[in-house]
Amino acid sequence: MPDPKYRDALIQIEASMQTGGQVVLDEDEKRLNSRLLQMKQKEVMRADFPPAMHFFKARDLIKESPLFSLLQKVPKGAALHVHDLAMVDVEWLVKNVTYRPYLYMCFTNSQSIRFIFSSEWPKLLPYCSPWVLLEKLRATTINSTELDDSIKRNLTIFTDLDPDVLYPTQDVIWGRFEQAFLAVLGLVSYAPVFTDYYYQGLREFYTDNVMYLEVRALLPEHHDKTWALKTYQEVTKQFTADHPDFFGARLIFTVHRGVNSTVMASVVEEAMKLKREFPDFMAGFDLVGREDQGRPLWYFRNELSLPSDRGLQLPFYFHAGETNLEGSEVDQNLLDALLFNTSRLGHGFALLRHPVAKELSKKRGVALEICPISNQVMKLVDDLRNHPGAALMAEDHPLVISSDDPAMFGSSGLSYDFYQAFVGFGGLRSNIGTLKELAMNSIR
Ligand SMILES: O=c1[nH]cnc2c1ncn2[C@@H]1O[C@H](CO)[C@@H](O)[C@H]1O
User: Fold this and answer.
1) Could you say which of 215, 284, 347, 381 is the most buried, measured as most Cβ atoms within 10 Å of its Cβ?
2) ipTM summary value
3) Which domain holds residue 350?
4) Is residue 205 part of a domain?
5) Torsion 36-38-41-47 (CA) sign
6) How much is the pTM?
7) CA nearest ligand 1 atom 2, residue
8) Phi and psi for 214 in degrees, rounded to 5?
9) Is the residue at 10 inside a domain?
10) Which residues in the chain show pLDDT less than 50?
């Protein structure tokens, strides 16, 4: 028989290596911990265990879970991976935006909708029906709840239908996802809405006990980008003044990775200029959109080298490894992001298959922004107990949990993702130390 003492020692060493293993707990935390672990034990035993199910089917189960209520109250540190157009519950958008005057709507060829605020009849879009003034449509619609519901369905990919039937492949779900973003864009890019929208976004995270945010923002063209950044900054200041215990927010300026190198060069120029104008408020730069369909980082190596060629500061926060196409060009993004000195890695879902990138990111303390619900909904993993985060957490790889696009996935703030990480890939052993370390990682 192996020596039980030796076995105990090994178990202890392993536990101390796992995320949270080295966190010191005070007496209150220890008491809370035993309650937390009892609750988790119960959750794990249930037949309809949420991390094993698609989030769309699991959401209401999670919502009713006592462990989830507790996680909502726990301070979760910072949300470091959140996209501008998916911060706010669509319910709010429908109630607070679509009833405003001067809002026009049209129906696209690809079964989506578009919006625009305009004082006069807007120009026709080639792929859309003629514009209708929403106020007028409402006046002639008998069932306004139905109209609101159908608008809502177009602003999110969350659904009550079977998600695997509605979205059978990654292509289908990414298609619907991008359509929903375009629908939201028309609602929020109108200046008066934009300020209210962003304030509400901060409120949703603040209410969920998140103290700081980094928002990846496209800064659409309707006004110039300096205006957009300034407005973001002012609203953040206002929110922090209204909620003094809120720490604040910064922006990561992003561009869609579908652009060509000429556009990329000018966007990087713009990013450098904005970084000079907003040295504190602007955190850095990133590329967004589906990695598998966009060009890899290496394709843009010349453009992305502009800042360092000129000796200018433009920190990168690259999405990388949000793919399961192992060995593809795009699969190289993880290593390339690190070679470009990325400050963090967005998703890093593919990291386990890249031992060198894994070693490098660990050594340099480059944290992964893990977004469990997003990875499940966008079909990178079915059962969240199998998320690569499980192995990375066990190895004490630097990581933070984030929610990516809560409004698109029907979640909100950070708590749903914390729940999935805590009971899903955290396994039975993850404890209050794990939560504490995750929160601390996010504010380091
Ligand atoms: O998980 C993601 N990976 C890559 N891009 C994303 C993800 N979520 C949202 N966006 C991108 O962000 C833009 C809005 O800011 C959307 O157009 C979408 O393409």
Assistant:
1) 347
2) 0.95
3) 72-89+191-442
4) yes
5) negative
6) 0.97
7) 289
8) -120, 120
9) no
10) none
